[in-house]
Design a protein that fits this description.
nine-stranded mixed β-sheet; 701 residues; alpha+beta
């Protein structure tokens, strides 16, 4: 049988006391958030993002047109100074279209001279504009003297909106598109082209451009116009998928991100790549795992599982998001209302803070390398290992979700002095978001990440009030049984064994209170870390679930190494380093390396009056560290970190955190841009207790 966490042998009359102390993890008194400006591209913010891009493009377009000559400046003022929304203010393209039609309304051919003059002006800033054959053909119609004269425009107030937006000749339409794109930041001056690329807007007898024009003409604001355009999309693909691609396109071509066109194209291509097979397997069968099934029943209404909208509900959901103005998730870092059946964010934060203060006040050192040798440190999972950084300086990091399944993604980093981006392996998005929140979320001083110090991810809490009444009843019963035993010491039935076994059984059935870092509140990772800390109690199920995901089962020798090795254990992050390996494709490989194949190690402890073996090290009175057993068990942990979804989430959390720490420690102005059109998933209940025997976290039940 695998050793139950914190279970000691029951051999003497005082054994119940030892058992209780061990099971309760030696239940004696155990003795500045950094904020970062993170740019997000989320589906919930679609309209606001597109409006912002359009406004910037329109602003730059207006400045370009006004600088053409005095009459152009006056014409632009006419179409942009009215109190009512005018079609011409929508984008650089619409402004250019309106001025062409105003010039043509003054005199046929004057619009062509306007385009030629604009071509000459913009040729100095854009080689694409200068060398375009269509624009060159228009410009050849005029001499330099023709283009030196001011353009003449009809009065805007003399023209109906339909006159301003009337269709352009085909060659002029192409010219306007190219000029508008060059005016806008990152080539986004013509948002209509970008929207048509990703949204199916064509109708029988009506082009997508006319659908957009009608939406703009009948709307009172850019936001309303974009809303109408988005809802005009006709599948396939589904609206959600189309909007994801639109958002990634907009984000990757935003000049504010400091990227050139090739860089943006690489990011878009990364989003299209597929995660490895074991992640696909998890996406397909993960909800059928026994551990995941238990999450449904661990809270009222299945609040322990995040829900994904069905395809049938996708269109209405998108519409609801837009109608609400982009507000989809309440709270900041989970600080909103508590989920059904689980502790609130504030309660979670207070519990974690109180536990951390008690731990360090008991004499546990803050230095990570020393603290992980103490059985009174994290009592669960700890991070804070050393990070060895490369000489390369990161400039910008991008989270790029997989288009095929947004619960996975990769970090892509733009590095100074390299013309290629470096990309991590695929990771769980939830683990990445938890790492972002751990490093830069404002969770209070006690939860702030501290370099090379013990940072508690989760822990058993010996002073939790959870099940305290039940514990008192069990101890009282044990006392009564022991008192009765004194009167029957000569009984051949050996009642002592019965009493001790029954007491242990009842103690195993008690829920144990746990604390979880507030950065994990409301996340799937909170459930994973709660299970990870107790999985060695059920190696058979651990192996079965891992094998169902990866197809690889741990060898019998690995599982045997854990049998009887220790009464308790705790997991700690290993030191790591970052390297960039040149790739064969369009990207390089960004790797986070640890001393072993994965990012966590384990410390094992025994509770004995005498050394359990020759290599045991006494770290506290009667508590022994087991280095030899740790070495034997590490391959089992490495297998789990690479094959079981709970351990994989934890491993991804450490990997993402290492990359983000590199960004944080390298440059104060390094940017993180999250290209995640679907946004963060809704908050779920957070567990606050665990049933040891069943490896079953629960949230307030």
């Amino acid at each position: 049988m695998p050793a139950a966490k914190a279970t000691a042998p029951l051999k003497t009359l005082v054994a119940p006391i030892v058992v209780i102390a061990a099971l309760w993890f030696v239940a004696t008194d155990p003795a500045d958030a950094r904020e970062k400006d993170i740019l997000r591209y989320d589906l919930a913010d679609t309209v606001d993002t597109l409006v912002s891009e359009l406004s910037e493009g329109a602003g730059q377009g207006r400045m370009t047109l006004e600088a053409l000559d005095g009459s152009a400046h006056q014409a632009v003022t006419q179409i942009t100074s009215g109190r009512d929304y005018q079609y011409a203010t929508f984008s650089a393209r619409t402004q250019t279209t309106a001025l062409f039609n105003m010039a043509e309304a003054f005199e046929p051919g004057e619009g062509h001279r306007f385009i030629a003059k604009l071509h000459r002006k913009m040729s100095g800033n854009s080689a694409i504009v200068r060398l375009d054959p269509g624009l060159q053909a228009i410009s050849r119609e005029f001499t330099d003297a023709d283009l030196d004269r001011p353009i003449r425009f009809a009065e805007a107030r003399s023209m109906a909106p339909t006159d301003l937006i009337q269709p352009l000749p085909r060659n002029i339409e192409a010219a306007v598109e190219l000029l508008a794109r060059a005016m806008g930041p990152g080539g986004l001056g013509s948002m209509t082209t970008t929207m048509q690329r990703h949204l199916r807007l064509d109708r029988p007898g009506e082009s997508g451009q006319r659908v957009i024009d009608r939406a703009i003409l009948t709307s009172s604001s850019r936001k309303e116009a974009i809303h109408q355009v988005i809802l005009a999309h006709s599948p396939p693909p589904g609206l959600r998928q189309a909007m994801r691609r639109l958002m990634l396109d907009v984000a990757s071509r935003n000049a504010a991100l400091g990227m050139d066109a090739n860089f943006g194209r690489v990011l878009r291509d990364l989003g299209e790549e597929s995660p490895p097979q074991k992640l696909k397997n998890f996406a397909e069968i993960g909800d059928s795992l026994q551990s995941r099934q238990s999450q449904w029943s661990a809270t009222s209404g299945g609040a322990g599982i995040s829900s994904t909208p069905s395809d049938a509900a996708t269109r209405s959901r998108i519409g609801q998001i837009l109608a609400k103005g982009g507000v989809e998730v309440e709270g900041n870092d989970g600080a909103g209302p508590s989920a059904n059946g689980g502790p609130s964010y504030d309660a979670n934060r207070r519990a974690h803070s109180a536990y951390g203060r008690r731990t360090f006040s008991s004499g546990v050192p803050r230095e990570f390398s020393r603290a992980i040798r103490s059985p009174r440190a994290a009592r669960g999972i700890a991070i804070g290992a050393k990070l060895h950084m490369p000489d390369w300086k990161p400039l910008t990091a991008f989270w790029v979700p997989a288009v095929v399944d947004d619960q996975f993604g990769r970090l892509a980093v733009q590095v100074s002095g390299r013309d290629r981006i470096a990309v991590t392996r695929f990771m769980f998005a939830d683990s990445f978001e938890a790492a972002v929140s751990t490093l830069w979320g404002n969770h209070g001083e006690d939860a702030a990440y501290r370099e090379n110090e013990l940072n508690i991810v989760m822990s058993m809490d010996p002073e939790s009030e959870i099940a305290q009444d039940q514990l008192d009843r069990i101890l009282s019963s044990a006392d009564e049984w022991l008192e009765d035993l004194r009167s029957r010491v000569r009984n051949s039935e050996s009642p002592l064994d019965i009493i001790l076994l029954e007491t242990e059984r009842q103690l195993q059935e008690l829920p144990r209170g746990i604390v979880i870092h507030p950065a994990l509140h409301g996340r799937e990772l909170a459930w994973s870390v709660a299970r990870v800390d107790f999985w060695f109690n059920d190696l058979e199920r651990l192996g079965q679930e891992g094998e169902s995901i990866s197809g690889i089962t741990p060898s019998a020798s690995l599982t045997e190494a854990m049998t009887g090795a220790a009464q308790t254990w705790q997991f700690y992050e290993r030191d790591s380093g970052i390297e960039i390996v040149e790739g064969t494709g369009s990207t390089d490989s960004l790797r986070v390396l640890s001393p072993g194949p994965e990012h966590f190690g384990v410390t094992l402890f025994a509770f004995e009056g005498t050394p359990p073996n020759s290599t045991a090290e006494e770290v506290e009175d009667g508590i022994w560290l087991l280095p030899n057993e740790q070495e034997q068990v590490q391959p089992l942990l490495d297998w789990a970190l690479n094959n079981h979804p709970d351990f994989m989430r934890l491993n991804d959390y450490a990997e993402a955190l290492s990359v983000l720490r590199w960004l944080d420690l390298s440059r104060a102005d390094t940017r993180l841009i999250i290209l995640d059109p679907d946004g963060q998933p809704g908050r779920i209940a957070t567990p606050d207790r665990v049933m040891i025997g069943e490896v079953a976290p629960s949230a307030g039940n």
